[in-house]
Each structure stands twice: as structure tokens, then as C-alpha cells.
Amino acid sequence: MSGDQILQLFAYLLPAVVTGAVAFYFFRLHTRNEDGRRRFLLHKDSQKETLPIRLQAYERMALFLERIALNSLVVRVAPKGKNKSDYENLLIKQIETEFEHNLSQQIYMSDSCWNIIKTAKNTTIQIIRSAGMSETDSPDKLREDILNQTMEKESPSNAALAFVKKEVTDLWK
Fold first, then answer.
1. Measuring CA to CA, how many Å separate 84 from each of 35, 70, 124, 134, 168?
2. Membrane-spanning residues where (predicted)?
């Protein structure tokens, strides 16, 4: 092969290589866009189905937090006898029963939200136990002690409820 023939071969080959490279680039760009579009449509469809379920889980946990708020709990759950420790155990059993009833909701929320809800539950139980250690002898006095403790500082349920509300508003962003 002479130099002219090699030059002529490159003259024919160069446009074919450039055309092939441009076609490859545009084909790859097109397939990426199609993959992105498919992922977006799948995500959009799954959001239509999962968003109502997630909102329902947040609603149930908000209701749980409202029900274990100490001021509403001691008003709703009246003592059944004259024993203070029985009433203390009754309050704790109410909280544990409510929590177990809503245990499955954790799969629809973030780990941080679920941990805050568990912390609110445990802190509420601690407040009841610490009020039960006081030298009061009747369930009615225990109710008063619990209510006095909640008036002094923010209820753990309220703090957790604020976090749940914030997380729900983040769903819309």
C-alpha cells in the first residue's frame, strides 16, 4: 500500500468512525433517559399506592402519642381499686397494649421517627414509675403527682408528636 492509498483509506474511514461514535453517544444518552423515565414512572406509581398507607401509619402513631400523653391517660384510665401500684401497673399496661397494637406501623416510617416514638413511650413509663415511687398511698394522689410532673415540663408525647408532624410535612417536599 502506498501513502496515497492509506490516506484515501483514512479519508473514507474517518467519517464512518465519527458517525459511529456520534450514533453510539446518542444511543447511550437515549437509553439512559428511557431508564430514568421508567424509574420515575415506577416511583410515581408506587407513591400513589404507598403514600396513603404511610399517612395512615403516621396518623395511627399520632393517635398513639395522644393516647399515651399523661394528662389524657390519667383522665381516660380511672383507678379500679384503692391500691396505688395496681393503678400504676394499669397505666403502664395501657401504654404497652397501645404500643403493641401499633407495632407494625414501624415499617412505614423512618428509623429516627420510630426511635423517637419508642423513646416517648419509655419516658412516659419512667415518669409513671417515678411518680409511683413517691410516698403517696392512693391512686388519686398518684394521678395528681403524674399531672404535676407533666405541668412542670413538656410531655414526651408532645415532643414525639412534633417530630411526626415534621416528618409528614417532609413527605410533601
1. 64, 16, 17, 10, 39
2. 6-27
pLDDT band, very low/low/confident/very high, at 118 (cuts 50, 70, 90): very high
Task: State the average pLDDT for the chain.
Answer: 89
Contact 88, 146 (CB under 8 A): no
What are 118's three cell numbers?
419508642
- Of 132, 25, 89, whose CA–CA distance to 17 is shortest? 25
Q: Using alpha carbons only, how large is the chain's radius of gyration in Å?
A: 32
**pLDDT per residue over 122-150, tens digit each?**
999 999 998 888 877 888 888 888 888 88
- The residue assigned the cell 417530630 is 163
Say how far apart CA 98 and CA 89 lie, in whole Å. Answer: 14
C-alpha cell at 81: 381499686
Check residue 46 and give its pLDDT: 67
Cβ-based neighbours of 110, under 8 Å, separated by 6 or more: 167
Cell triple for 7: 490516506
